[in-house]
Structure formats: structure tokens, C-alpha cells
Design goal:
Blueprint lengths: L1 H15 L2 H9 L5 H8 L7 H20 L13 H8 L6 H25 L13 H7 L6 H10 L12 H27 L10 E3 L2 E7 L8 E6 L5 E6 L3 H31 L1 H27 L4 E4 L7 E6 L2 H9 L8 E5 L5 E5 L6 H16 L7 E7 L3 E5 L12 H18 L39 E7 L8 H18 E7 L15 E9 L4 E8 L7 H7 L4 H10 L5 H81 L4 H18 L9 E3 L6 E4 L4 E7 L6 E6 L2 E6 L4 E2 L4 E2 L30 E3 L5 H14 L4 E4 L6 H11 L4 E6 L9 E6 L2
Parallel strand pairs: 5-9, 8-12, 8-13, 10-11, 11-12, 15-21, 22-23
Antiparallel strand pairs: 1-2, 2-4, 3-4, 6-7, 6-9, 13-14, 16-17, 16-20, 17-18, 18-19, 23-25, 24-25
């Protein structure tokens, strides 16, 4: 009895929350008929462990679907359950059923191979690094029997017919049939030609699987034979000539032999299927589980939902659902051109047991209840929840709801009676359910002090309080609690019911119009208020949920703005108790104003934070780009220097070998000296900036030639042009003063002619920047644009440039190039511009150098 009440109450709740509609939507994302059927009749888990497994399946399929270009494929997999059952009972399967079994085996094996390949991309992958362990364990149990699949494909063709290669006997029978048919056709064709005057139409057809020809009724005696049929008008007889009767009989016998042989082949294949029917049923269950997980993942992706995390309120964790959207309203918006879905925020701290939501009608209170109920159910069945991360909510064993109007004329039920009957079933389900463990009971339930003067059991306070019962892990959703009867009695009943639920249920969310219920928060810390926002300027709800404050009455304001007689509204206001309802509404209005101000400040702070984070990212990206550019330049320079050094070493070695191989004469030494001079001019970089001169070489002094990295002896002092002769080894050469230095690194000073005053030092100019590396970031392609559009893009690129900018404008008529050059000539951020190198596009590309 208890199970039936709980089951009935659960089923009723699912209908009230429109859970079957959500399951129908989920079924559209399934790939197989079995998966769609499982989605339509979704089983709700009874333990948190089952929900965690389902969520893990959904999460892994979600990740795999994102990684795969085409997603998981269930091609070839079909519902073979009925065929397996008939085969297990020694039935003979049809060719189409056998073919479906073979394609299902192939599709299942392909699924397993795909998951295994992504679980083990390399042979050295560690066991603890498997990315899809749940899916891997699921498909590991698949037995796809490739030998059975091959046997079916060998015997059954793509049309589901037994093929000739199934057995030699069948092939011989069909060969005889072909020859016999050809013989019959040939004989009848000859008759048609010879007796053309007696033929109604020159065709050969069949009646009762026997070949016949159409004969005119007036010439029925012209072709002796057996009449098998007559046309509707009676003018045509379908005659089997006696000349082909025996061969038609032989053909019928061959057809029966073919059918018997084909049936024997299908029976043998059916027996093979029966031997492994248990494994194939398990395979079908695994594939259906995988398809259902795929449907959940695809539906979650479509909803832009996020994976939930089950929390433990008894451990101090808070239910957090930010920007939660109703999934059915999202479907209506996208598929039925519905209104935009307004998200809601839910945050229930662990000490709360009851939340009362107040506000005007059509303000979204009922939608809030349904959205929360669906979110809890979606998380239980392994679906992601359409809310912002983090999605944190408890795992409720039961979700029980009283939503809507159960008024029934047939059952003689009023609105109030319908609510009471449904609430009674909810209380019965709570009484029959298992309570939470004693250790899970929050401290706030140990000794509550209810300002109403009632103890939790409903008796008067005073004396020894009775121990509180342990609450049930259930979510209770009550819409318009206590409505449909006298307001005074309905309010009292609602208060008592909410106190009872605070003691017996894990969490209760109730909507109400009764102002007395708003005060429960200030009498018991297990209660909280929430309100749906209402725009008085437009007399319309905003569907936003405000936490911490109750909703205020707007009846008189709405009535006055809708045109009700002002005298009646004024009289109603006078009848309100002074300093009670009016003061409360003023306090609530102040709280709402404060909330709006805080929300505006929070939005402004959030925008500033986002702007700061964006600027930080931009600065970090630019810094990383500059570091990468510097690294690339340094790498290019190092490679260039290394290549130059290697080439110079090879050239010097070649000159030395030639010098060593030939006679060591002065002419040979001079030629070698010139060769080394040419090598130095070719490979060595320009000399470094001249250090302040501090010495003058004399004959016999030892000096260094940095560009050759050798030490030489001065043979003659510098002449007026600054040239001097030096010797190192067997070679003598003439060098300039600027090319030598002392052994201590001092640079010589060129002597000035008499009467010449030293000129002032020129103002130092910055050294030219190192050549920039052209990348996609510093290249702007404006081909095909108008000049005005190109100027806008070029101005934006110059504002972000940190070096030369390559502008691709092409050749064409030259109008775009001339317009860009005219724009660059007057741009304040442009230092100079020039055509690009031939390798970079020549005159079709302009290199722009921004001002430093």
C-alpha cells in the first residue's frame, strides 16, 4: 500500500511538472528506435550512485562528441529484440531480420572500436590516463561475434534474400530455374509470333506462378491450353499453352526446392543466433544505454547546460542555481517562436527548510516551482542543468508537488478539495519514506523556538518538548498553499502545514498570497522569503526572483491604474488597518529600492572587472607577442651569424690550403691577403662603433685586427690617409686605423692636418631597428575594398601596430594603392612607407613604418 501511494504521488508529480514532455524532447536526440523509446520512458534512479554513473556517462559522451567531427555514429543498429526472442524459441528468422542482426553487430563493433581508439591513442598510455573510463568499461562487455556477422553476410544479400553463394545446392537449383524460364519464354515468344492474330497483346505474364499469354476470347481455340484467368471485360483469356505445361510444372517443383533450401539455410543461421541470444540481448542493452547517454549529452549541449554537482546540505553546502532556465520554455522559444526565457537565481543555504514565494498572479511563481523540480529530476537522470556554473543541488530521493487547480465537476471537487487531497497524498508519501540518518540532522532542528507558540508536533509550547522526527530527503513544491477557502482559515492551515513540512521534509518551496506567511522568516530561521518582481510602471511582471524580501500587494495600485472608480479605491484604502499593511508595503518598497541600487552597483562593478580583465589580457597578449618577436629576431640573427662564420671558415680554410700547396712567395702571400680581405668584407658584420681614440701605433708595436681575430706587427706607421702596413705570420696586408686596436682594446686616433680644427661630434641618431618578421598579425589585406573602407581598417591596424605593417592592396588599376598612399602621407602616426621586397609582393604590398 505504501509503495502504491508513493508511486502514485511520484507519477502525479511528474505529470504536474510536465516531465513526459521533456522526455519527448530528449527522445528526438536519440539515434536508434530503442534509444528514443528508452528516453520517452526515462527511469528515475533511486540512489545517488546510479545518478553519478549516468552523469559520468553523459559527461564523457559530451566530451567525445566535441572531440569527434561527426560525433558518435549508430549507423546499422536496429531493434532486434523480437528477432532474438523468436530465435531463442527455435523460430526461423526472415532474411531481413538476419540482415538487421548482422548490421547491428557491425555498428556495435564500430562503436566499441571508436571508444577504444580514443581511450588508448598510444600503446604507452598509462591506465590512469584513460579519458573515457566509464564508456570504456561499458563497451568492454560488448561481444559482437564477427563470425556470425560474416556467416549472415555470406548467406543473405543486401535485400534480405538468401544468396546463391549460401550453398552449392541452392546455386544449382537456381541455375536450373534460369534455364527453364528461358526455355519457357522462348517457346511462348514463338507462339506469340506465329499466332499474332489470336493474341490480345504480345506479352508474357504469370498467373498462379505459371507463365501464360493473353488470348482473344474469339480465338480461344487457336491456342490449345489451360485458361487460368479472364480479364474484367471477358474479352481476354490468360492461357497456359499445353506445350509449356510440363515445363511450368517442373519450374514449380524447382521453386519449392529453392524455398526449402533457403529455409534450411535461414534455420541454420537462426540456430546460430539462438546460441548467442543472451549475449546479443546484453549487446542491445549496452548499445541502448550508450544511445541514451548520447541523447542526454546532445540535449544538454543543445540546452547550453552545465553538469551538476550533488551537494550535502548537512555538511554546510548551499544549493546554488544561477540563471536557471526552464527547459520546456527554451524548447518553446527555439522551436515555436516563443518569448525569451527569463532565467532565475536560486540560492538556498543549508539551514533553510521552507521558502515562501509571494507576488502577483502571472508573475512566474508557478514557473519557478516547475523549473526547480525539473532541474532536480534532470540531474537525477544524468542530464545537465540549464544554468550557469557552478550547478550545485542536493540529490532528493523524492520530488512531490501540488501545482495547479484540481477542480473536478465529475468528482465533485472544489479547488480547495483538490489541493487538500493532493497534499494528503504528499504527507502520506513522506510518512512512509525513510528519514535521513540521525547524524545528518542539522543543528537548527535540535530545539527550535517558534514564535508562533507551537511545538513541531503541533501542540502548545511549554513543558518537556517532544523529540523532533528526522526529516525525509524530499523536495516538496506547493503552489498557492491554502488557497480556495476562507482567507483566515486558509492562512492558518498554510502556516501549520509549512511548520509540519519544516520538520519532516528536506526542502519545501511554496507560493502564496497570504501576507501572514511572510512573517514566518522572522519567527523561525528555517524559513526564507522570496518574491517575484513586478513593474508598477507597466503593470506587468518581470519574472525575476528576488531573495530575502517578501512580495508586496499591488491589488489596489493595479485596480486604480486599470481604471477602477477612484472613490472605490480610496474607500478600500481607508478600510485597510492603519500602520499594518500600508507600513509593511512601504518597508517592502524600500527594500526593493535598496536591492535595485545594490544590483546596479554590482553590475557596474562587474563591468569594471570585466574591462580590467580584458585590458590585462590584451597587455599580456601584446607582451607575449613582443617576447616571441624578440625571440624570433634573436634566433634569426644567431642563425645568420653562425652561417656567416661557417662560410668564412670554409673560405679561409680554402685560401690557406691553396697557400700551403703552392710556393710560398710574396706574390702568393699578397694574393692570399687580398682573398682574406674579400672574405672579411663579405662575411663580417660592420665594425662596432668606434671607441674614443687613445693611442697611435708605432713601427714594431703589436696590435690586434678584431675583424680577423689575429695579432699583427706594425711594419710602417699610418700615412696621411690613415693606412698602415702590418704583418701576421707570412702575410702582410694594409689596414686602416679604424680596423685595428691595441692589445688592451684601445682605438687609435687619426692625426689631423695642421690648421684644421676638430669638428664637433655629430648628434647621435638611433640605430635602425632590426628587420621585422612578417606574420599574420602585422599583415593587413585590403584587396577588394573601397578606399574609404580600407582607410578605416588601416587606421585601426596602425593604432594597434608595434612595428612595421604590411598592407596588401594588389596591383589592379592602381586606384586603391594611390588612395592608401595619399592617406598614409597625411597620417600623423606614419613615419614612412615603401614598397615591399619582391619576395613579399613588391609593388602590390606597401610596408608602413609607424612613428616611434
Amino acid at each position: 500500500m505504501a509503495m502504491s501511494v508513493r508511486h502514485a504521488c511520484q507519477t502525479e508529480t511528474l505529470d504536474l511538472l510536465e516531465w513526459p514532455r521533456l522526455c519527448q524532447h530528449l527522445a528526438t536526440f536519440a539515434a536508434t528506435k530503442l534509444g528514443a523509446l528508452a528516453a520517452q520512458h526515462l527511469r528515475i534512479p533511486t540512489t545517488p550512485a546510479d545518478s553519478l554513473v549516468l552523469l559520468a556517462q553523459t559527461r564523457e559522451v559530451y566530451q567525445l562528441e566535441v572531440a569527434l567531427p561527426q560525433g558518435l555514429s549508430f549507423a546499422g543498429i536496429s531493434d532486434i529484440g523480437a528477432a532474438l526472442e523468436r530465435a531463442a524459441r527455435q523460430g526461423i528468422l526472415l532474411g531481413e531480420e538476419l540482415l538487421a542482426i548482422a548490421t547491428t553487430l557491425a555498428g556495435s563493433r564500430q562503436l566499441r572500436r571508436l571508444i577504444d581508439q580514443h581511450n588508448h591513442p598510444g600503446e604507452l598510455a598509462a591506465a590512469d590516463t584513460v579519458p573515457y573510463p566509464v564508456l570504456g568499461a561499458l563497451v568492454a562487455e560488448l561481444r559482437t561475434y564477427p563470425e556470425l556477422e560474416q556467416a549472415i553476410h555470406r548467406c543473405i544479400d543486401d535485400q534480405g534474400q538468401v544468396s546463391d553463394r549460401a550453398s552449392p545446392t541452392l546455386a544449382r537449383i537456381r541455375e536450373k530455374q534460369r534455364h527453364l524460364r528461358e526455355d519457357i519464354q522462348r517457346t511462348l515468344q514463338q507462339l506469340l509470333q506465329r499466332q499474332a492474330h489470336a493474341i490480345q497483346e504480345p506479352i508474357i505474364t504469370q498467373r498462379d506462378d505459371r507463365f501464360v499469354i493473353p488470348v482473344k476470347f474469339s480465338h480461344k481455340d487457336a491456342i490449345p491450353g489451360i485458361v487460368h484467368d479472364t480479364s474484367a471485360s471477358g474479352a481476354t483469356l490468360y492461357v497456359e499453352p499445353y506445350r509449356v505445361v510440363d515445363r511450368n510444372n517442373q519450374l514449380r517443383q524447382l521453386v519449392r526446392q529453392e524455398q526449402a533450401e533457403a529455409e534450411a539455410i535461414r534455420q541454420a543461421l537462426s540456430q546460430q543466433v539462438a546460441e548467442v541470444a543472451g549475449d546479443l540481448e546484453r549487446l542491445l542493452a549496452i548499445v541502448t544505454t550508450l544511445d541514451l547517454a548520447t541523447a542526454r549529452a546532445r540535449y544538454s549541449l543543445w540546452l547550453e547546460a552545465n553538469p551538476p554537482r550533488f551537494i550535502d546540505p548537512q555538511a554546510g553546502e548551499t544549493l546554488t542555481l544561477r540563471e536557471l532556465r526552464h527547459p520546456l520554455l527554451v524548447w518553446q522559444q527555439r522551436h515555436e517562436n516563443g518569448h525569451a526565457v527569463v532565467p532565475i537565481d536560486l540560492r538556498v543555504t543549508p539551514n533553510l527548510r521552507v521558502v515562501t514565494i509571494t507576488g502577483p498572479n502571472t508573475g512566474g511563481k508557478t514557473v519557478t516551482l516547475k523549473t526547480l523540480g525539473l532541474a532536480v529530476l534532470m540531474a537525477k537522470v544524468g542530464l545537465f542543468v540549464p544554468a550557469r556554473e557552478p550547478v550545485e543541488l542536493p540529490w532528493f530521493a523524492q520530488v512531490l508537488a501540488d501545482i495547479g487547480d484540481e477542480q473536478s465537476l465529475q468528482q465533485n471537487l472544489s479547488t480547495f478539495s483538490g489541493h487538500i487531497r493532493r497534499i494528503s497524498r504528499i504527507l502520506t508519501a513522506l510518512a512512509e519514506a525513510d528519514p535521513l540518518p540521525p547524524s545528518a540532522a542539522p543543528a537548527t532542528l535540535a530545539a527550535p523556538a517558534l514564535a508562533s507558540g507551537l511545538n513541531p508536533s503541533g501542540g502548545q509550547a511549554g513543558g518537556t518538548p517532544s523529540p523532533l522526527p528526522q526529516p525525509v530527503n524530499a523536495l516538496v513544491l506547493l503552489d498557492e498553499i491554502g488557497a480556495g477557502t476562507d482567507p483566515t482559515e486558509g492562512s492558518a492551515l498554510a502556516k501549520a502545514l509549512l511548520h509540519y513540512l519544516a520538520d519532516h521534509a528536506g526542502l519545501t518551496i511554496a507560493t502564496t498570497h497570504y501576507g501572514e506567511l511572510k512573517a514566518l522568516k522572522y519567527q523561525d530561521d528555517r524559513f526564507e522569503n522570496a518574491a517575484v518582481e513586478f513593474d508598477e510602471a507597466t503593470l506587468s511582471p518581470t519574472y525575476r526572483l528576488l531573495w530575502g524580501i517578501p512580495g508586496r500587494s499591488n491589488a489596489l495600485t493595479i485596480a486604480q491604474r486599470l481604471g477602477l472608480n477612484p472613490e472605490i479605491v480610496a474607500a478600500a484604502k481607508q478600510q485597510l488597518a492603519p500602520d499594518t499593511e500600508t507600513d509593511v508595503n512601504q518597508v517592502i518598497a524600500g527594500l526593493e529600492d535598496q536591492r535595485r541600487q545594490q544590483e546596479a552597483k554590482a553590475r557596474a562593478a562587474s563591468q569594471l572587472l570585466e574591462q580590467a580583465e580584458r585590458l590585462h589580457r590584451e597587455v599580456a597578449d601584446k607582451a607575449a607577442m613582443l617576447r616571441e618577436r624578440e625571440r624570433q629576431l634573436q634566433q634569426v640573427q644567431e642563425q645568420t651569424v653562425q652561417q656567416a662564420i661557417a662560410a668564412a671558415k670554409q673560405d679561409i680554410a680554402r685560401v690557406i690550403r691553396k697557400l700551403q700547396q703552392g710556393p710560398q712567395t710574396a706574390q702568393a702571400a699578397q694574393r692570399a691577403t687580398k682573398a682574406l680581405q674579400a672574405i672579411a668584407d663579405k662575411h663580417l658584420p660592420p665594425p662596432p662603433p668606434v671607441a674614443p681614440p687613445s693611442f697611435m701605433p708605432q713601427v714594431g708595436d703589436k696590435i690586434r685586427i678584431p675583424r680577423l681575430n689575429v695579432t699583427a706587427e706594425v711594419l710602417s706607421g699610418p700615412d696621411p690617409s690613415g693606412a698602415l702596413t702590418v704583418r701576421f705570420g707570412l702575410m702582410k696586408m694594409t689596414v686602416a686605423l679604424e680596423e685595428i686596436e691595441s692589445l688592451q682594446g684601445e682605438k687609435p686616433q687619426r692625426p689631423l692636418p695642421e690648421g684644421v680644427e676638430p669638428r664637433p661630434k655629430p648628434v647621435a641618431t638611433p640605430a635602425p631597428a632590426e628587420p621585422a618578421i612578417r606574420t599574420s598579425r602585422n599583415t593587413l589585406d585590403v584587396r577588394g575594398m573601397r578606399v574609404a573602407d580600407a582607410e578605416v581598417e588601416l587606421d585601426r591596424a596602425l593604432a594597434q601596430a608595434h612595428g612595421p605593417l604590411w598592407v596588401i592592396h594588389g596591383h589592379g588599376t592602381g586606384r586603391l594603392r594611390r588612395g592608401i598612399h595619399a592617406f598614409l602621407e597625411q597620417h600623423p602616426q606614419v613615419d614612412r612607407f615603401e614598397p615591399a621586397e619582391a619576395a613579399d609582393g613588391g609593388s602590390g604590398v606597401t610596408v608602413v613604418y609607424p612613428t616611434p
